[in-house]
Every structure is written in structure tokens, then in C-alpha cells.
């Protein structure tokens, strides 16, 4: 698959964008006209820069508001087009994107439109230029890719074809199957973008909320599958208008973009293999051979089987030790060679990192995931351009394959074991042991604060490299703003991550004000809470108003309600089961949660999140 990206996706100058695209490994780019017009470099210099960087200049765009106009306007439009064709010759470019008219079209007549596009194609041909006509989702008369293609067929000129843009097609819910009926020679260009499903006018949605494939909710593998089955072999190019990406680090966004295409390529191959298997052909190999576009695949991984460990960092290590001890964790000792301690409760393993915490680093410094094969999982992550974590190891120590997540949490790929034990724990053992609680516990979920610039990148990272499934995102009110919350989990819930995007005011100051936490699941939360209280644990204090509201909503048995209130427990219930939980006070920027899932409750007590945020806000602002 030939990969491409439009310069409009990135921040920076044209030169910076081109350099970032080359470093990220793109085959070619689309030059967005604004980027050229505002560049100090001449077209000849841009052409040379691209050649030196090994980047193809695959598309010049956009050319607007050409078709369906009065004769006077047509004349002016052809003159405007000719100027661009001359410019493209200097750039060494041969394909231009022409969008369906959104502004100046006054005549809704396919015959007239075809005649005008024929004139444009004829002029383009004289300059050796190909015109890719694209139906914008908000085009005045042409807003549908099949309509655009009908016009291309009517004109039947070698210099006129169509451009398929996934956003314009999927935002309008157009059926993508008819893409297969398009003559591949008439598909001059393919643009891909994903987007969250939002209810707003399609122009605003397109100009501000497009994201890279895998970061939104469109069915892009299916779209691409139809494109591949049509026989298309040209560039597959990202065209993402996004307010955040346009102000983020250029090189980093280009790498995020490249990751999305590598992943989409694999997903498209899988979609094709799935559909051809369903149709009774011979699966992946056969389907790949049948189509002219080559689709690369990646090392395959299953979902992780569970958390192996979590590692936390705080300035006040003693305070962390105290909290874990009060919750019922036992101290297993200090590492032989590193400044870290191991604490366990049943199968929940927590490492306290004694190195000084930096405000720029996440409080949850590392997570271990159990995978079938750490080597294969690491190979996959690296092919998806995940940065590798270098960790010093001594003889006899477990070698972990680690990758760095977008928020700089280190993810270690660990060999899972059937009995839930971990081979590396024997490296700990120096120091006094404390008896842990008799209760079993497992890591239930981990809540990670995401810097605002890297939120979408994180969703794609965990989806593509670690096979987690994004759930629909939620917005949780807090006293300092709305917290965007995105659950990423495995299908059986063995791994549950909650990515939280802090309100701007918090995200821009230190991470300190925005907290991360680890939740542990136990079998009997009331017993755990009572034991913890005996050991002197400071619970997050829940206001009495909460319990009145809870009673109104759920009509609880009075004794049970009194127990919840007495122990500062939060409660939720849905059709699948019940959820009980409590929170500890915060140390540095990390705190802990204890949960009990009853029945098949699969959520996170979302209705209680605003209460937690408000109480934490209150305790932060009181001191
Ligand atoms: O928003 C626009 O105007 C616009 C321009 C060119 C494109 O290819 C596109 O998809 C949208
Ligand atoms: Mg487009």
C-alpha cells in the first residue's frame, strides 16, 4: 500500500511538515494549497526538497467551486485552473483534487456539470494533469460519491477521475459496497480519515473533529476493503482536519499518523480475509493474491490475559507503603539491585519505585501486561512505531520487553502464567515481610491521566499495539471542568484501562493536580473496608447527600445503606449486577480504589465519578 498524508494534518511550516513526513516513513504527501502559498520556498525548491527527502508529491489540493456555474464564471474558473496547472508543472505534480461546488453553483444539471468538467479535463490533459473530482459531504448539488462517479463516467475523459474520501462517505452513512463497482482506473486518489460519531453539522465535524484511523468510530477497514476489491493501487492518504493535531508536535503527530495507516492496512487485510472466508474462497492467502494492492500484515497478538503488575511513584514513599499496608497488602521485600519494593495482596502486585517522582512523569510509572508471547507482542508494537523502553538488567534477572505509551507510562510485556504467579518476584526478598490480608485481590482497572495533545494517539496506541477495545467515551463533570473518560479493555475485562483527559486548566499545570489510580477487586469489600479501618486507613469522605440520593435511586435495604454510609462506600447497580467501591486519600498524585463486582457488573461506577472528583477537589483546595 502506498502511504500518504496531507500537509493540513500537521502543525508547522511546509518544510517542517515535509521533514516530519519523511522521518515517519510516508511514501508521499498531498500539498494543501495554503501551505504552499504561505511558504517562503519557490515551487522548484519544494520540488527539490521532496526529491531529497524521498517523498512523492502525490496530490495538489484543493481546487474549489468549479462546476455547475454560469458561462462567465466557467471562463474565470478555467483561467484559475490553468494557473494551477502551470504551478503544478513547476512542482512536478500531476494530480489535482477538485471538490464539488459548495458555494458558486447555481445550475443543478448533470448534463451541464459534465460538459464543464469535460472542458476542465481537456485543459488538464493539455498540461499533463489528472483531475480527481471529490464529492464533499456538504456539496451544494453533488454530495455523494456515486453521483461524482456518474459524472466522471458521463465525461469519459482520460484526465478526469474521482477521489474517494472516507469522511465524506461515512459521515453521510453512504453505502460503501458500490465502491467495488467503480472502474479502478477512474479512482485517481483515496483519502482516509476517521471521526467520533457526533451529532453536528457535517462541515464543522469535518473541519475540526477528523482523527486518524483507529481513533474514531468509522468502519474504515470495510471502506478500504471495498477500495481494494475495486482494484485500486494508488496512494492511501490521510486527510485529517483536527484542532489538536494542528497545534501538536509535528514529528510526533506524523508518527501517530503513520501508525494509523500501518494498522489500517492490517485491518483491511483482515476484513478482506474475513469476507472472502465468509464467501467460501480460501481465506487470507487467496484474498491477498486476488487484488492488485499489496497489503502488509503485522505480527499477530491476542488480547493480553491480565495485569502482571503496576508500578507507582510518589515523593513520599513512606506514605505509599502505609496506604498499601492499611489496605491489606504485604511487603515482599526490596529488589536485589533496583530501588524498588514489591507489595502484594493475593494476585495483585504493586511495585513502589523509590526514585524521586518528577512532576512531568506519570504517577503510575509502569504497567505489566501478561501476553502469550512477549517477543511477538514487542515485535508488533515496534512495527507500529512504539518507542522501546530500555531497562537495565543484571544476570539472572527477567528481561522485560517494554514500550512507552503516549503519556510515557511504560508498558511491559510479560509472560503470563496459568496460575497467576510471576517468575520475577524471586528477585525481591530483602527486607522485613509483613503478613498480608487473608483476602485475595487482583488489579481490576487502572486510571491514567492523559495529556490533552496525546489523547487520541493513546487510544490508537492501545488499540493497535495492545489489542484493547475502545468503548464509547463519556464526559464526567468535576468542579474544575468536564473530564473526558475513555475505557479501553479486553473483551473479558481482564485488562481495563480508563484514559482520562483532564480539563484544560488542570492539564496545563503540573500533573500533580490531576490524579491517577489503581483499583483492586476483592471478594468482600465490606470486610476489606472494616479491616482497613482497623489499620487506620484514611478513606475518601463521601458526603451525606450522596447517600440520600442513592437511597432515592435504588431504594436500598436500610441496614445495607447504613453500612455503606458508615464505611464511606460508593454503590452502583445495573441490569447485570452491583458494584461497591471506596477510595483512599491521595499520595503525591496517586491514590487507590478497592472494588467488589457482584453478578456480571461490567462498569466502573460512572454515576459516582462526579462525587469522587468533587471530594478530591475539595480536599486539595482546603489544604
Ligand atoms: O473542508 C474542505 O474544504 C475540504 C477540502 C478538501 C478536501 O479533500 C476535503 O475532504 C475537505
Ligand atoms: Mg478530502
From TrEMBL:
Residues that, per the record, bind Mg(2+): 445, 517, 593
Cofactor: a divalent metal cation
Positions of a divalent metal cation binding: 134, 165, 191, 239
EC code: 4.2.1.118
Gene3D superfamilies with a match to the protein in the record: 2,3-Dihydroxybiphenyl 1,2-Dioxygenase, domain 1, Divalent-metal-dependent TIM barrel enzymes
Catalysed reactions listed for this entry: 3-dehydroshikimate = 3,4-dihydroxybenzoate + H2O
Catalytic class of the enzyme: lyase
Keywords, in A-Z order: Carbohydrate metabolism, Dioxygenase, Lyase, Metal-binding, Oxidoreductase
GO MF term set: 4-hydroxyphenylpyruvate dioxygenase activity
Segments forming domain VOC: 306-416, 442-585
Pathway terms, separated by semicolons: Aromatic compound metabolism; 3,4-dihydroxybenzoate biosynthesis
Family: Belongs to the bacterial two-domain DSD family.
Function field: Catalyzes the conversion of 3-dehydroshikimate to protocatechuate (3,4-dihydroxybenzoate), a common intermediate of quinate and shikimate degradation pathways.
HAMAP family in the cross-refs: DSD
Protein name, as recorded: 3-dehydroshikimate dehydratase
Organism: Arthrobacter bambusae
